[in-house]
Amino acid sequence: MKIHTLIYIIFLFSLCVCPTFAQNKKFPSLNDLDKAIVEQQIYVNKREENIRVNKKALQEATAEEERYRLKNLLFNEYTAYKVDSSLHYAKEKLISARKIGKQEYIDDSHINIARVLILAGMYKEAFDILDNINRPQMVDYLKDYYFQTYNILYESMLKHSLDSSSTERYRQKATEYKDSILINCNYTNPYIYADRLIIDGNYQKGLKLLLDTFEKVNPENREIAYTAYAISDFYRRQGNIEEEKKYLIVSALSDIKWGIKEYISLWRLATILYQEGDIERAYTYVSRSLDDAAFSNARLRTLEITQTLPIIQNAYLLKNHTEQRRQQNALIFTTILILSLVIMLFFIRIQLKRLSKTRSQLNQANQQLQQLNVELKTVNEQLLSTNDQLNETNNTLSSTNESLTEANNIKETYITRFMSECSAYIDKIDTYRRQLNKLAASGKLDSLYKELKSSSFIEKELESFYSTFDETFLHLFPDFVEQFNSLLRENEAIVPPKKGGLSTELRVFALLRLGITDNERIASFLRCSKATIYSYRSRVRLKSFFPEQFEEQIMHL
Question: Cα–Cα distance between 129 and 144 in angstroms, integer?
Answer without folding.
Answer: 16
